[in-house]
Each structure stands twice: as structure tokens, then as C-alpha cells.
Design goal:
With about 475 residues, this protein is α+β, with helices and mostly antiparallel strands. It is built from 14 helices and 16 strands. It folds into 3 domains: about 100 residues, Beta Barrel (OB fold (Dihydrolipoamide Acetyltransferase, E2P)); about 300 residues, Bira Bifunctional Protein, Domain 2 (BirA Bifunctional Protein, domain 2), CATH 3.30.930.10; about 35 residues, no CATH class. The strands form 3 sheets. An 8-stranded mixed sheet has the order 6-10-11-16-15-14-13-12, with helices on both faces. It has a 5-stranded mixed β-barrel with strand order 1-2-3-5-4.
RNA sequence: UCCCCUUUAGCUCAGUUGGUUAGAGCAUCUGACUGUUAAUCAGAGGGUCGUUGGUUCAAGUCCAACAGGGGGAGCCA
């Protein structure tokens, strides 16, 4: 057996009593021809391996370059140095893989996030990305734990879909037809009957419609999978491929929906605070140092840990779209004409500057906005009795904006079909969706949470490309 | 897709009103030192100044187009 190693995180938690252990990892630095800082990805903390003078061949020492991989066996002793409590006095060191220091792109020094983005295949070996991706893992795990504890069924909705009627965004086409000479109909349009699925297909933009089918059988379901949008979005909070969590609950109204979303977000943050304390502390410090370079008015009022603590211990602010418009209209910010888009009145779509004002200036906490005008929302949202609004809710988070979008669904078949016709949604194509309303329809609701935006919020990373391993954005799909 | 900023050594940057051989710190390499903590000290190598075109006696520096990167907006999660 090759792997008899102990992980460095576990080793660092032990008492040094001269025990013999084997560790494997990558060299971060080699100081003074005597001290190897070894990292194995289990924690940002390195193990100090002591190479006693004269005990090892000079030629071997030359191979302890940055990111060379080592297998080290030795005895665990209390450290004489100041930076660590224990260290490993090496008795044998094997170089598993050499690393040419002149060619290896990551140097033992600070690198910009932009540079590391171009080295996305190696950036996990840095402290920042080590912390970010360990937290990403923890959050993914916590999502399943949360819903499992609540009795939800994890549902795998299809990645390839035939419906293009959801209206959530531009889609990526999936086809096996030859693009230089596709089969044509008589009117010269492309004949998708000859395509692989016998029809036009796309990558999914949302699992919601299928999720509703699950909810109206299991009661409560959630999806957690990749989602694709072919929008030409070039921002720090959009990806062409991202992961989304979409719970869908039968026997549930808008308020139940909001309660679940709020509890869910707080659960995830609390989970990371309990299980990833070290990584969060590292990222908090990184963020604090980064903000020192910013002018006073651009710095956050709270540190990362303070912010997370605040969000888990305070209720989210809930208000209706109508109330939000009133607050914005009466704000000094609006009266002094400081909004690029002035508040023209009820019915307008809120711009991100308006959302940011509500969240970051007015309430200074996450905000749940409800009951938007039906004109600016999707066809499946439940129409309110006022005839003007729908039972929608968006959760806005400081720093990243919309993190959750959800609604109570329109369960009344006549109302739903009428709305679909108004919005030119083809009812024939969605016959299977409408069947849920024909056969035992129930009040139900759900929401979508952008996983990467959640990871951004917890880690404090300002660019979404730094919280997914291999970001897919317009004109960019390296690796 | 639109607006703004940016591109000089492996990385982060400086480079004056256009003017001789384009600099620094870190990294790398060589040597010294040996309980170091981003070790330290000494020395060395390393550049098609994003690309193309233009203005000029002369362009890293001025102008244009294109490309890459960043910030903001729209679309949204």
C-alpha cells in the first residue's frame, strides 16, 4: 500500500511526542537549506519539515523547489522556532515529482487574482484559492445536509431540454447536425426532425419547470446542478455556466417560501463559520488588506466575519415592491438626483443602483422584496388579487445584489393559461407542465439560488470567476 | 452589447515637455551563511515596450484600428 500518509491538518492538531508519521504534499518554500514548508491542500497551514544539515545528499536538496511533490517520513517534535508548535524531523524524503522552478508560473510571492485567473489550472495551490474551494465544497455539502434534514428529495432535472419557453435567458443549442450543411425543410429552415433528438434542443437554463413536476408528487424537492445561459454578460457576477439550487415545495405560499430561503441562507453561512473557521479568517484578512488600498468611501463597514455573523443573527428586511419604490422616491439620494436612473414611478424595473441603495445604504442588511408588477416578471408567478402584482420575491445581498429569485407559482389552470397567452408562451409545447394544474393542482412555491453568488458572499471574493474552478464567460473557455 | 480605464522583464510597477545603451522591487540562477518563517547578504542572467498602421529628423511616450485584461451598465442567479 502506498498511501499511509496522515493529512497535515490532522497532524497539526496532534501533540508532538516523537511519533513517526508519513506526509505527502507540495513544497511551498524551502528556507535556509533546512526548512521545507510543505502543504497538502488539507489546510492553508504548512507543515515545517526539518532537514538536518549533513543528513541528506546536496543533490537531493536541490530538488526541493516550489511545488515539487514530496513523500516525507520522520518524527513529530515540538518546534524550536516561533512560527509553529510542532515540526517533522525528516528521516527519509522522496521526491515524487520534480518542479522546474524557472518554468513553474506561481512564485513564492503575492500574485494578482487576474494573473491567477490565467493560471486557473494551478491556482488551487495558493492560499486564497485553497480557502475559497474548501469553502465551496463545504457549502455544497451543507446544501444537501440542509434539505436532507428537512425531508426534501434531491431531484436530477435534465441538462438537455427541448423547451425554449422558460424565458430565463438565451440558450446554448445542442445538436449533432453538421453546421456547414444541415438538412433543410422546403422553406429552407433547418429540419430539426433529423437532429439527434428529432427536435431542437438546448442546454437547460433552469430546472424549475421539471422541479414543479417533482414537487407535485414528493411534496418537497430540490435540484442542485449546472445551468447555462448564452447571454453576452460581461460582469463580475455572471457566468455562462453556473450552479443553481432550486427547491420547489407543494402546499406552500410566498411567506413559507421566504421563510425557507432565509433559513437556508443562514444555515449555509453558519455551516461555513463552524467548519471553515481558519479559511474564513484567512479570507477576511486578505479582504481587509485589499480594502486598505481603496478610498475610504469604498471600504465595507464590516469585516467579512462580522458581516457573516450579522447576517445569521438578524432577520432579513421584508418589504413589497410598492414600499420599496416609496422609500426610493422619498430618499434624499433621489431628491438630490444622484440616481443615474431617477425613480419615475410605480411599474418601473429596479436598477442595480436602486437595489444597492436599499440593501447597502437604507437597511444595511439583506432585503427580501415581494409582490412585483406582473409586467416585469415571469409567466408562472401567481397573480395577486390586486390584478397588478405577482407573488414574487427576490433576496438582495450586500455586495452582490440578487442572490435568490423565487415566487409562489400560479396553480390555477385558467389564470396560468390566460397569462401564457398574454405573454406569447406556447401552451402546446408545455402540455406536460400544464398537466400538473389539470390533475390535483396545489398551491406551491420555490426559488433559485445562484451557488456561485452564495460562495462569493461567504468568501468575500468580488469576482464570480474566482469562486468556480474553470469559469465559462463570453470569449473564454480555456482549460 | 454599450461607456470608462489599462497593456513596459516570469510577477507587480516606474519611465519627465517625444531625444544617447528602457529602470526598480520581488521571482529565477550562482555563491556565502546556517533554527529559518515571504530567511538574510553578495553577484548574474532576463525586454520585438500587446499587435498593426500612421505622424515625426527621432516614438515605450503622440494619433487610429484591432486584440487581451479590469471597472461600471444592461440581461439575470
Amino acid at each position: 500500500m502506498f498511501n499511509n500518509r496522515i493529512r497535515i491538518k490532522a497532524l497539526l492538531a496532534q501533540e508532538p511526542q516523537g511519533q513517526e508519521v508519513t506526509v505527502m504534499g507540495w513544497v511551498r518554500t524551502f528556507r535556509n537549506n533546512q526548512f521545507i514548508a510543505l502543504n497538502d491542500g488539507s489546510t492553508n497551514n504548512n507543515l515545517q519539515v526539518v532537514v538536518e544539515l549533513g543528513k541528506f545528499d546536496e543533490a537531493l536538496l536541490k530538488r526541493f523547489t516550489t511545488s515539487a511533490s514530496l513523500k516525507v517520513t520522520g518524527t513529530v517534535v515540538a518546534s524550536q522556532g516561533k512560527g509553529q508548535t510542532l515540526e517533522l524531523k525528516a528521516t527519509s524524503i522522496e521526491v515524487l515529482g520534480d518542479s522546474d522552478a524557472e518554468a513553474y508560473p506561481l512564485q513564492p510571492k503575492k500574485h494578482s487574482l487576474e494573473f491567477l485567473r490565467e493560471k486557473a489550472h494551478l491556482r488551487f495551490r495558493t492560499n486564497t484559492f485553497g480557502s475559497v474551494f474548501r469553502i465551496r465544497h463545504a457549502l455544497a455539502f451543507a446544501i444537501h445536509q440542509f434539505f436532507n434534514e428537512k425531508g426534501f428529495v434531491y431531484m436530477h432535472t435534465p441538462v438537455i431540454t427541448a423547451s425554449d419557453a422558460e424565458g430565463a435567458g438565451e440558450m446554448f443549442r445542442v445538436t449533432t447536425l453538421p453546421f456547414d450543411n444541415p438538412p433543410r425543410n422546403e422553406d429552407n429552415s433547418i429540419n430539426f426532425k433529423e437532429d439527434f433528438f428529432g427536435r431542437s434542443t438546448n442546454l437547460t437554463v433552469s430546472g424549475q419547470l421539471e422541479g414543479e413536476l417533482g414537487a407535485t408528487a414528493f411534496g418537497d424537492i430540490y435540484t442542485f446542478g449546472p445551468t447555462f445561459r448564452a447571454e453576452n454578460s460581461n460582469t463580475a457576477r455572471h457566468l455562462a455556466e453556473f450552479w443553481m439550487i432550486e427547491p420547489e415545495m407543494a402546499f406552500c405560499d410566498l411567506e413559507d417560501n421566504m421563510n425557507l430561503a432565509e433559513e437556508f441562507i443562514q444555515y449555509l453561512i453558519r455551516y461555513a463559520m463552524e467548519h471553515n473557521r481558519e479559511d474564513l479568517e484567512f479570507l477576511a484578512q486578505r479582504l481587509a488588506e485589499e480594502e486598505k488600498a481603496l478610498p475610504q468611501d469604498k471600504r465595507s463597514e464590516m469585516g467579512l466575519l462580522e458581516k457573516l455573523e450579522f447576517v445569521v443573527s438578524n432577520k432579513f428586511e421584508r418589504l413589497t415592491y410598492t414600499e420599496a419604490i416609496e422609500i426610493l422616491r422619498e430618499s434624499n439620494h433621489n431628491k438630490k438626483k444622484k440616481f443615474q436612473y431617477p425613480i419615475t414611478g410605480w411599474g418601473m424595473d429596479l436598477q442595480s443602483e436602486h437595489e444597492r441603495y436599499l440593501v447597502e445604504k437604507h437597511f444595511k442588511k439583506p432585503v427580501i422584496l415581494t409582490n412585483y408588477p406582473k409586467e416585469i416578471k415571469a409567466f408562472y408567478m401567481r397573480q395577486n388579487e390586486d390584478g397588478k402584482t405577482v407573488a414574487a420575491m427576490d433576496i438582495l445581498a450586500p455586495g452582490i445584489g440578487e442572490i435568490v429569485g423565487g415566487s409562489q407559482r400560479e396553480e390555477r389552470q385558467d389564470r396560468l393559461e390566460a397569462r401564457m397567452k398574454e405573454m406569447h408562451i406556447p401552451t402546446e409545447e408545455l402540455w406536460w407542465y400544464l398537466d400538473t394544474r389539470r390533475f390535483g393542482t396545489v398551491p406551491h412555491a420555490g426559488f433559485g439560488l445562484g451557488f456561485e453568488r452564495m460562495v462569493q458572499f461567504v468568501t468575500g471574493m468580488t469576482n464570480i470567476r474566482d469562486v468556480i474552478a474553470f469559469p465559462r464567460t463570453p470569449k473564454s473557455a480555456e482549460f
